[in-house]
Structure formats: C-alpha cells, structure tokens
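Office hours follow-up: a student asked to see two folded examples consecutively, so here they are.
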Amino acid sequence: MKTTSVRPAGRSSTRTLRTRSWWMNYSVSVEELRRLVDEGVRRELEALGARLAEFRCAGVDKLVLYAKMRLAIALLAGRNVADSLDGELVESLGLTRAARTPPPPAAELFQIDEGVWRRLAKTRYTTSRSLLTESSSRRGILTYIWMRKTGILRRHPNGSLIVDRRELSRHPAGSERELGLGDIGRFLAEVPSSLWSKVITEELLGNAGLGDLITLAERYHGFDQRVDERLASEVRRRIAKGWVPSPEEARRLEGVIAKALKGLKTTVPPHLLPFIDSVEDYVKGREGELAGEIERLPLRERWEVLRSLRRRIRDPGFFKHLNPISLAELRSLGSVDRELASRVMLGQAIGSYLEYLLTRDPSFQAYAVHIAERIDAGALEPRHRPLLESILNGDEKKMLFLLGREAGFDALELLSVKLGEEYSRSGGLDPAVVKRAIAIGMRLLNYMRGGRGFTWRRRKTSVRGRLEVRGTLYKWVRLDNEAVFKRRERVQRVIGVVDVSGSMARFAVWSMLSIAAVFPVVSHIVLFSEKPHVYRSPFKKTSLVLARFLEKLYTEGFKGYTNISEALRRAGELASRADSKTILVFSDLKQTVPDTEPWLVARWLVEKGLRVILVVPRGTESATVERYRGAGCDIVVVENPEDIPNILKRRINLKNRV
C-alpha cells in the first residue's frame, strides 16, 4: 500500500501569503518609483521647453540630443549641475542661442512740476527762459522736455512757445510720467546750458545705451565743465571695461575721448592713437606691432592716422616699419631722415605711376620718374630697390609683379582711390579707364595668387559619400572587391553678399578671394553699393566673377552710397528660389541710402528660417552690431582681413555644409 505524505496546510499558505505580500510591496515601490521619475521628467521637460525656444536655425537631431543629455544630467546629478554644464553642452553641440536685446529702460520717471504747470495754465504764449531759471529744479526741466515732446508746448515761427491748454488740462500737476534718453537729447538744447548738469547726471549716463551716450556727448560736450567731466568719466569707464570705439564713434567723440584716454593704462586700437596724450611714450617698444595694426586699416583712414601721428611722433623709427604706400601722404619731409624720406617718395612715385597706367597721361609718368630720380636707392631696403628700378625704366610688368607680391592689397585699394580722384577731376569715368583698372587689378590678383595659394578653379560638384555596406557585401560575396559608395551631389546652400563701397575695398578683396575658395557651396554672389548686382557662382573659373567684382568696386565704391537693406532683400529672394539656407554678408554695416533699417530686413530673413552670418571688420560701430545681433544674426568680427579664409573654413565651416 502506498503512503502519501501530506504537508501541513498552514505552512504553505503562510509562504504564499508572504510571496504575495512581497510582490505587492515591490509593485507599489516600482509604481512609486515610476511616478517619481515621470514627475521629474515632466518638470525637466517643462523647463526644457523654454530653453529649446532659445535656439534658432538648429537641426532637430541636435535639439533631441541636447534634450536627452540635459534631461539625463538633471535626473542623475541634479538641476544645479545641469545648469552649470549647460554652456559646455550647447557649445559642444554647436547650437546658437538667439540673442535677445532687453527693452531699453525708461531714462527717467518723474512727476509733473506744479510750478511749471501753473505758469503754463495762465498763459497762451511763453518762452523757455521765462519758464526755466537758474533756480529751476531737475523735475521742472524734465517737465519742460516732456511737454515739448508731447506737443503741449509747440514752437511758433517767431521763436516763442504756444501752450496747448486743453491738452495740458489732461495731465494734472504731480502725475507721474517717463522720458527716454532720446527725448532728453533732442530737447535739452533748448534749455540754458547752465542747467544741463542738473539733467545729465552720472546715474543717467551710467544707464544710457551706447548710442544715446555718444549722441549726448556729441551735442552737449564743451559747454559746461561739470557735464564734460561726467561724460569723460563715463567714456573712460566703458573703455576700461573693454569697449572699443569705432573710427566713426571716435570722430563723434573727438572732444571727449582725448580726456577719457588721459592716463588710462589699456591697449587701444590704431585709430585711437591720435587721441592719446603721450602717444610717443605709448608706441615706444611696440613700433612693429602697432605698424602692423595700422596697415590693416583702410587706406584713406590709414593716411589720416599717420598724418596726425607725424606731428606728434618725432622718432622716425616708428614710420620705418610701414610700407611705402602707407607713407605716401606724409608731407614736410625736410625734417625727416634720408631713409624715411626715400620710402615716402617711393610711395608717391608708385601712386603717380599707377595713375599713368590708368589714364595713359604721360604727365603722370613724367612726375613719377621725377620723384624716383630724387630717391637715394642706397637708403632703400633691398626688396624695394627693384621697384624703384622698374619705375625708372618704365617696366610696367615688373612693377605690377613686385607690387602684387609685396603689397598687392594696398595696390588694389590704391587703384580704387586713384579712380575716385579721376572721377572727381572729370565728373565721370571713361569706360577705357575702367577697363584698364580691371585689367591691372586682375594682373595684381594673379601675381598675388602665387604667394597666397588661393583656389582659382572650382572643384567638382559630385563627391563620394559614405560607404554603402550592404552593396559592398553584396559584391564581395560575388567575388567583386569593388567598394560601393553612396553618391550625392554637393548642395549649394550659401549666398555671398559683398559690400564694394570705398571704405570696404581691402576687406572686400579678401572676402571675394575667400568666397572663391568655397565656390562649390555658393549658389549666388550679390555685389552691392547703392544697388545690388547678382552673379551666379561660376562653374569652372572664378576670374569672370572677380573681374566683375573689380568693375563694381572701381566704378561704384568711391561714390559713398551703400544700401544694405536692398542687398539683403535681394539675397532673401535668391534664397527662396535657390533653396539656400545661409546668407553670408561681408560689410561694415554703414547704411547711407534712405531705406528700411537693414537690421529689420535681417530680422525678417531670420524669421523666415534663414541663417544670416555677418562678417564685419574691427571698428564697426558697437551699437549697430548689437542691433543685428538682437535681430538674430550671427556676428563675426574680424581683427585682420587675412583671417577671413580660415574663418570660412573652420569657424563657420562652410566647406562641410553640404
């Protein structure tokens, strides 16, 4: 008989209950953990939503990767660690934040002065001097400016002020109002200058934007000592913090900037050297470095700086570091040593001989030879003596070859200057002169190419892509060892926009030669001064586009008209037709033709999904740069025009945008 062992029912049921209890507790813990993780993810995603909105023109793959990495760091290490690493994460992924300019704060909040209000309520006509006296308060002066702004006080043809008492009654005394710095700068001139110091305070200047500060300094410096001291102190403070006034800003601040730089121990750009009080001590020991920086300036600006420094720097060693074309405009050579005088005269002879090559007027050649005969060849450097011999012998080819190798960009810019002088003399340009200028410019570019290594021919548009593994294996198993690649056509995604105005001559030449190196990704080129001229990217040779570039530079560059807005609009139209996503602009951002503000046009392009990259020379006005940055443009400030090719290849990475 078979016996069966029976386990006690109580022990089995107890174990089952324990298992169920453990499983229920585990399930509850997992659910709680999931809930906590989901809650953390939700909070982080809400915070990420605002952050992702800060990026513009970024690929979806990069945004997804940024979101995942940011979320992982925040969940594992905490939000504080994620915030501290956010900048490095953004930089590593190549994302760009949309720059936002905060709205300008109100310059002044004040209450309408009761005394001024009562006097105006009793009269129909008045004058500023009867309203404002030496005892007037700051509040009373601001009340006057505000009433001029709103039209309560209107100017009569006889010079008096008409009071609009109906409008005045709508603004009772003591009510709070606000004024912008632009309004103060506009109407403060009607107030006696002895009262200006009550309005232009250190606090007001400290809160002022750069453009408003320059406007106040330009209009109100030189009339009141206290105002002058405050303006100089504020400009000095901003320069010490890193602000570098552009040449145009320096000219507008001429009366203030000399006081601001007095005793200030900081490095200044070359165009500010004439404003330094002890400039001879400043340049001592740095002659070669400063001379190199001066030679990067536009030619006319360079001559202006050197003429000013010639009167203040007596040491000829400083000027010996400059090339003859830079020294060509120095005068009063009687007190100059023989070596420096020979360099200056060589520069003058080069300029006169280039003018002969343009006009074919023998008087210019005779004058160039006359100057060259007075030069002591022994006082020149050995590399400059062949240039002197070519002028004396009338060897045009050799002279242009030596200029192209030694100072090609200066020679191209000098050609533009000489064409401007010819235009001023004759009131127009002979087509034959323009044709000669283009021919000379192309020869200089050709000679420069030998020493610079610029790309002259366009590369093939069809490139070999990634290895196609499936197709390669398919051939390999069939004893065909040929690799298969995914072939693709190089997409032309870039539109180049180049400013050919006179002030941009040197910068524009570098820009065009740099664009020529990346022609495979350039669909169109827009050359503009007053009007834009569109050219398709060349298929084989770049010489035709460079010749057209020189034509526009030499025929329109010296007229002083620049319309950036129209050029940007034209580039936007081309982008929509050519399916281009990037507009690359080379300009100093000086709009001289009445039109829509160019940064507003740039903002419109950015809102359409285009990437607008502005490559600007050092010295471009800071306020203008900030307007474009606030419009969503990428700004690249170039210290040296010779760095442009490297910027295009590495920083902007145009060669890989295919």
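And the second, which I mentioned at the end of office hours:
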Amino acid sequence: MRLTQLINRLAPAPQAYASIYDVCEPVLRPEEPLAEPGKHLRLLYRKSLRHPLLRLFVLRGCRHPLLPMARIGRYHEMLRKALNATPVHWRNRVWVRETFAPLAELLDKVVPPRWQLRETMAAPRADMSRAELDETLNCLARHVFRVWDKDKQDPWFPVHAQASLSGDDTLSGEAFLDILAGLGSFEQQNATLLFALLRCFLMACPAKLRLMRKPYKGLAEPLRKLGRITHRTAFYDAIFFELLYTRAVKNHVHPEEFRKIAAVLESLVRYIVVTSSEELVSPTGGIRHPAITCLPVGSRGQPLCKLSRRHWRLKRKLGFGDYVPDVDTTFLALSMARKWLLFLRNFGLQADPELKSACERFLNHPWIEIISEYQVGSGHATNPPTNKATRPLDYFGAVPLWFDKPFRKADGSVVREALGNEICPGHNMDILEAILVNRHAWRALSGQNLETVHRFIEFHHRAFKSGNFRRESAVRFYLPPTYVHYAGRVWDVFKAIPEEEKAVLDPEGKLAEIRKIGLDYCRRELLGRTVNPFDAAQAVLALVLLEHEPRRDGLIAYGLSVMRQALGEGLRHPYRAYEWTLVRTPTRIIVGSEVATSLFVLGAFAEARRYLYGHERVDLPLPKPAAQIRS
C-alpha cells in the first residue's frame, strides 16, 4: 500500500494547461509529412524546440495559462495542415492567414515586460578636456588594432549574432500573419512559425523567461557571453570603414596610426568590393551590375564570411542556403569606394592598382537608374515589398531591402524573396548618402534621376515629420538612434554641397527640417534619459553631424562622459558587445561585438574632438566625373 502511494506521489499529475510539447509532439513526431515543406518542418522542430537543453532546462514545465488542454485541438489541426502543406499552400496568402489565425490570436495575448530601463537624467556636465578626448581615442585605437591583428593571415573585425528566443516585441498577430505570408521560402516560413509558437509559451512563464533575457539599462541590448555566432559581412565592414575613415580624415593622428588605418581601410575595401561582389541584372531595364552580398562563397562553395563550418553546414541543412545581395550593403559600399579613392588622392597615398580599378568599375554604373527600378512610386512594380512590417511608414519613395535574384529549385520551381522583402528607413538613408556623395558621377541633378532623389528625401521627411522614426517597429533593422545618426551622415555630406546644388536637390528644405527634428530627439528623448555607452556613441555622432548648437552647452560632453566612464566594462575589452543591428524574423536576432562598440565610440570621440576643438578636419572635395558612365 505504501509503495503504491509513493509511486502515485512521484508520478506527474495530469496538467490542466498545455505545454509547447503538448501542442507539437502529437503531430510533428508520429505523423508522416506529405511533401518537402513538412519534412523540413519536422527536421527544424527536432533541431530547435526539441534540443535537449531547451527541452529539459527551459521549456519543461512551461505551460500557457490561457491554453487549457481541452482547447489545444485547433493548434494540433494548425500544425497538421503545416505538416501536410505543399509549396503551393505556402504561397497562398489566404491559406496562410486562415491556417495560422489561432497562433496570431495567441500572440496578441503576449504582454512583454519592460526590457529597457531608462530614467530621467540630471543636467549635463561640463566639457571634456582635449587631453581626456585624446587619451580615450588612443586607448580605443590600440584595442581596435589589437583585435584586427589577431588573425595574422587574414585580419578582420569579428561580429556576433545572438538569437533571443523570447522573440520580438513588435510581433503582433497581424504582423506575424503579414510576415509569414510575405516570406518567399517555406524554410523561412517554418522557422517563423515555430519561433512564434515558442514566444507565446516562453513569455507566459516569467521564471523561465528570466533565464533567457533580462532587463537592461539604455536602448541597445547587451549581448550575452554564450550562444553567439561569430561571422563577418561586407555590411559591417562598410560601417567600420566609415568610422575609421572619420578618425583618419577629421583628426590629426600620429603618422604610425595613420599608416595603420590606411592599411585597414584598403583591406576592408578589398573584402567588400572584390570578395563580396556578384553580378545581377536589374528587373525592368535588364541592366547588368555588380551587387554586394553578405554571405560570399569561394570557388569550391566554402564560406568567405568567417562562419564556422559547423554553422555553415547546419545553415544549409536546415534550408537557409539561399542568400540575396542587399541594396543597403551595395550602396554603403558605393559610398565607401568613392571616399577611399578620394582618400588616396587627397593624401597622396599608393594602393593596389587592381583594387583601385575594381572600385572605379564598381562606381561606373547608372546606379540611380538601377535603384529607381526598385523604388516605390517610380512607376516600376517588379520588386515591391512583400510585407508591411514597418507600417505605419508611408512607403512612397523608399526601396525594399533585397535586390531581385531568383533561385531555381530541383523540382523546377522558382523562389523569389526567400527572406521576404520589406522597407527599412535606415537602409534608405544609406542609399541617399551614397547618391549625394556620387551625385555628379551618377547625374543626380537633373531629369528622372533628380525625381528619384526627391522621392528618397520625401520618404525620410515623412518618417521624421510624422514621428514614426521613433517607433522601433517602423525602423525595423536598427534602433531609432542609429537612424538619426545616419541622418547626420546625410546632413554632413549635404552641408558641404554648393548652394546652387542644394537648391536643386532639396528645394523645400526638407533635409534641414529632418536635422531639426533629429536634434530635438537627441536632446529631449535620447540623452534626456538613461543611456549605455553604445547609445551615447550614437547620440554624440548624431549631435555632431547634425551640428548641435550651442556645442559647448554640456550635452555632447554628457554623452562623452557616459562612454568614458564605462571604459573597462568589457573585462578583456574596453566595452561590452551591444545590439547594433538586428533582424526580427524568424525570431529576434541581435548583432554586435565588443570591437564594434569600440569602433562606434572611436568614431564618436573623433567627431566630437573635431567639433568641440576645431581646426582638425581635412575637407575632401568631391570631384566631377572624368568620363561618362556606361549604360
């Protein structure tokens, strides 16, 4: 009798509410899929939600209080439809919306905690001395070069991606259905489905949620030490080029440091323009042009993005091998290529002749005509955004993220927009900056090209004027301070343009209004409350590039003091790794690294040193083209 009582006591009691495994196991384990999408769904489930660590230590006992066991039949039916779906089903927006409506309803019941801890801050402090600025700059430069030199054979700046299993807080039920229907590959759709399901259960269990994610100070989230995927992309390198270029051009630096920066810049240019380039054809005009991919491969199919072989194999095994060059990275590279050629010319530097020729060939395309084929409102409709995740932005004048690149599958089907195609305002600001830098070579001051430029400016003006630039859901791949910083980069180029050209490019003064709104955001919202060092770097970069006045009122100095006081927080590095950019599907994945933080802080201090103490800038005139662009 006692033994029977003991066994009954140890046996798990029947549960009133469902776990994620009560929903998934009865369907995804025993039942046989009918087509490739279902086979992939079951494989992905086994590799992700059934991972032993996640199953035993996180999701075990994690039950949803709004999902009684008696009501999980509709979720079984939902997963059964997904398991038996064909590619044709997944391309049917009506089917997607009807099938996954139960999960959308559950997502709408998620109540996220307050992740960003921000309090109102006291008045700014006094200016930082020139000696303090120089000391910090020298410290950061040593760290940056030490990281760069770690790999003697192939130096690079590592960046980490880290998944947040709690998902993205902008993912409402409607956004989930819109994104799911807009993805072009069933692999991405399966992943988005499973991670949305995981978000619902994890967010319903606060105790388990605390194991995965904790509140933090400021806007940018710090990366955890574990669970990082380290890699390199041309997108990161183009931004790093800009920050090091700022240091070399806008400050007087020691000759040894200058030579080191020049060598790093040349290496970054080579990786972006040569290693990461591939050929595409524009969707309407059929113009052949290069484009920059973030996942280049070698002649034998090996990754050239520093991704480990294990992660590369797993990526392809799970069906995520197709990657399209993106518009943003390409236009960042175009701005960088022009600046590097000017850098060589103005400082009388020698460089690899073949690399210089590669940059000139890269620039020598009708880029405004090419990008106008993708621009909303240009009259072309060949590559529109496939989801509206960044609403309430008005998309007129904007360009979606990805170039057009179809993939033909073994069964003869053609996949486009594998990752979906969406509008990100930060990416569009990079495009505008590249056009202004290359305005003469690309004939931006007249005709249809000028109309294209006007549409870009109108798009950004509406984003700022409406206040939508403050919304994380609208900015999409960045946080709002980064978008404002990139607006500062545009203003920094625009203010040096002759007045007669300014009147043609922006006759209504919309960029000046963007500047005013951006400065007000930095003063009142960004530096008026708690920030971490990465937030402070974005704020100082924006304030300086947008020409905050009075420059010595202590506001810039406050941002600098936040960064300086945080030196050493990264243990073996000056700073911790913070969220710099992110993707929101199939789950929230934040991207950053310790050296990325150091580079942004280096750029902020370099800009502030020039702005606060003056006479440190070497202006680089933008030359008019020596030859016509080939069409």
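Two things to take away from it. DSSP finds 27 helices and twelve strands in the chain. Residues 307 and 402 are 21 Å apart (CA to CA).
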